[in-house]
UniProtKB/TrEMBL annotation:
Keyword terms: Metal-binding, Oxidoreductase, Zinc
Lineage: Bacteria, Bacillati, Actinomycetota, Actinomycetes, Kitasatosporales
Domain Enoyl reductase (ER): 8-343
Cofactor(s) the protein requires to work: Zn(2+)
SMART domains referenced in this protein's UniProt entry, alphabetically: PKS_ER
Record has Metal-binding as a keyword: yes
PANTHER family per UniProt: NADP-DEPENDENT ISOPROPANOL DEHYDROGENASE, ZINC-TYPE ALCOHOL DEHYDROGENASE-LIKE
Protein name: Zinc-dependent alcohol dehydrogenase family protein
The keyword Disulfide bond is annotated on this UniProt entry: no
A Pfam match: ADH_zinc_N
Family designation: Belongs to the zinc-containing alcohol dehydrogenase family.
InterPro entries given in the database record: ADH-like_C, ADH-like_N, ADH_Zn_CS, ER, GroES-like_sf, NAD(P)-bd_dom_sf
Length: 358
């Protein structure tokens, strides 16, 4: 079979690799039908994630069909169409028992495309299959379902739920990339009075508006002043950081009201200054987190009912063997306008499908 293999910083290739095989009785082998690329994959290719060893197949999001299971797998069987979660869960350790699967200490957590071979291949071995794959309802297409492997549960759990969004809140989402846009979409489920999206790209702000942001703001034009004007000087109830750089985190802390909540979703590679000299007196809550994917079954039900606009985030589709081209498009989003790219699935006959034409 073929897979997309990391060979070191700046080096990767779609190449022939050995077929995966059952190693543990809790494993499943999945034939991959649709995958997507995550910003974390780009960080790996840059050498920012040193735990990823050369020779590792990248990717942690997929939809496919079960072709083989180990002797202890009970919830799925060959022929089942499934979503492969970005998080694997042993189900036995303390954190799994508390549904904190991202912190699994039994050999799970974020391992696919990180510590073991991932999903950007024709087949993938999924450990702990009973808790790490989800049977898919027929109403959800492969292209839409693959976005529920990572970005939707990440934005929903680490942003919206951790942030405690409530009806009537003013919610600010800083960063209108895929995760930020998913945060806009899932924050709407809680009926906030307004959602403000902040970014530097006009195309992404327009996408945020289409997904439900009533107000958009250019990050370079003092968005904290706009938020102050909208809230009579109080600040936002919830601010979701979805970029992962010091400047945006510090911006979020300036926009939150006393007693409000900053929910950090972005993956930070550099230290950010925490201005406790200003924040200590404001009763501000700051949360961080790696997605646990405990919400995936709920999100799947909402997607099947047409309550999640997953398809609106897909801007480009490719055949599975066009992995390098897909990485080039996704990695140059400022020029290509890419939000999420999907490889495989039912729309693979077109290399690039603008969202407004679907």
């Amino acid at each position: 079979m073929k897979g997309y293999v990391f060979h070191g910083p700046g080096q990767s290739a779609w190449e022939e690799i050995p077929d995966p095989a059952i190693r543990e009785a809790t494993d499943a082998i999945v034939r991959v039908d649709a995958v997507t690329i995550c910003g974390t994959d780009l960080h790996i290719l840059k050498g920012d994630v040193p735990e990823v060893r050369p020779g590792t197949v990248l990717g942690h999001e997929a939809v496919g069909e079960i072709v083989e299971v180990g002797g202890e797998v009970r919830t799925v069987r060959p022929g089942d169409r499934v979503l492969v979660s970005c998080i694997s869960a042993c189900g036995r350790c303390r954190f799994c028992r508390e549904a904190m699967y991202g912190q699994c200490r039994g050999g799970g957590g974020w391992i696919l495309g990180h510590l073991i071979d991932g999903t950007q291949a024709e087949y993938v071995r999924v450990p702990y299959a009973d808790l790490s794959v989800h049977p898919l309802p027929g109403a959800v297409s492969s292209e839409d379902a693959v976005l529920l492997a990572d970005i939707f549960p990440t934005s929903y759990e680490v942003g919206v739920l951790n942030g405690g969004v409530r009806p009537g809140d003013t919610v600010v989402v800083v960063g209108a990339g895929p995760v930020g846009l998913a945060a806009v979409a899932t924050a709407r489920l809680f009926a906030p009075s307004r959602i403000v999206a902040v970014d530097v790209a006009a195309s992404r702000l327009e996408a945020a508006r289409k997904l439900g942001a009533e107000t958009v703001a250019d990050a370079r034009e003092a968005p904290e002043e706009l938020v102050a004007d909208l809230t009579e000087g109080l600040g936002a109830d919830v601010v979701i950081e979805a970029v992962g750089v010091p400047e945006t985190f510090e911006l979020c802390t300036r926009m939150v009201r006393p007693g409000g909540h900053v929910a950090n979703v972005g993956v930070h590679g550099k230290p950010a200054t925490l201005h406790l000299e200003d924040l200590w007196i404001k009763n501000v809550t700051i949360t961080t987190g790696l997605v646990d994917t405990h919400s995936t079954p709920t999100l799947l039900r909402m997607a099947a009912a047409g309550r999640l606009p997953t398809g609106q985030l897909i801007t480009h589709t490719f055949p599975l063997d066009s992995m390098q081209e897909a990485y080039d498009v996704f990695g140059n989003a400022a020029e290509t306008g890419a939000l999420k790219v999907v490889l495989g699935g039912q729309r693979h006959d077109s290399v690039a499908v603008p969202a407004q034409q679907r």
